Amino acid sequence: MAHSPRETGSASPRGSAPHHRLWHWLDRNIFELGREMRLSYLPPLMVYAAAGISGLTGIVGTFFVKDYLNLSAEFLAALAFWAGVPWALKMPLGHLVDLIWRYKSGLVFLGAGMIACSLFMMLGLLAAPDAMAEVMPATPPPITMAPGVTGTESVSTGCR
Q1: What is the full per-residue pLDDT of the chain (160 aa) written as tens digits?
Q2: DSSP string, 33-84
Q3: Do residue 39 and residue 87 come from a single domain?
Q4: How far is residue 53's CA from residue 123's CA, in Å, rounded to a whole number?
Q5: What is the residue range of 120's domain?
Q6: Same domain (yes/no): 105, 65
Q7: Do the domain assignments include residue 90?
Q8: Is the pTM of this model over 0.90?
Q9: Does residue 91 share a domain with residue 64?
């Protein structure tokens, strides 16, 4: 929408001063979001805000657990991987639950049982780290070579 120099008070060749174009862009793209905000949007926004904040505090928690329990970084990375698997499977499992919704009571008990098992594992990790280290050692076992292999031979990839 072009304005005449008389309307904008500017003789800019594009029809408006740069600060007017910037204000119009901000109004159209940023401030319009606030005007379209409804009270019903607030609960999901609060959930996403809480997830973001917990992600930031989770970093501090990871360093505290690493120092408090004397765990290696690779053990914590493995622990984070296994803790993240349910979030990665959330969408495909959500679709599966939608397909078998008539068995929802069994699914609720299955989910509650899995949560209880994971809580007991975390409690065991905090209460008895030595016993938990026997189940899942913090350092990987040594790599052994096949008989007759010294490890100094070059590996052929089959590509020439």
Answers
A1: 555 444 555 444 555 688 899 999 999 988 998 899 888 888 888 888 888 887 777 777 777 777 887 887 788 888 888 888 888 888 888 888 888 888 888 888 988 998 899 888 888 888 888 887 787 776 766 667 666 666 555 555 544 4
A2: HHHT--GGGHHHHHHHHHHHHHHHHHHHHHHHHHHHHT--HHHHHHHHHHHH
A3: no
A4: 24
A5: 71-137
A6: no
A7: yes
A8: no
A9: no
Q: Are residues 64 and 87 in the same domain?
A: no
- Rg for the chain, CA atoms, rounded: 29
**How many domains are contained in the chain?**
2
The torsion of the CA quartet 97, 99, 103, 108, rounded to 10 degrees, works out to 10
Q: Are 16 and 8 in contact (CB under 8 A)?
A: yes
Query: Measured between alpha carbons, how far is 67 from 62 in angstroms, rounded to an integer?
Result: 9
Residue 151 lies in a domain: no
Asked if 125 contacts 69 with a C-beta cutoff of 8 angstroms, the reply is yes
Are the C-beta atoms of 20 and 8 separated by less than 8 Å?
yes
Q: Which two tokens stand for residue 123?
A: 């409690």
Length of the chain: 160
User: Does some domain include residue 104?
Assistant: yes
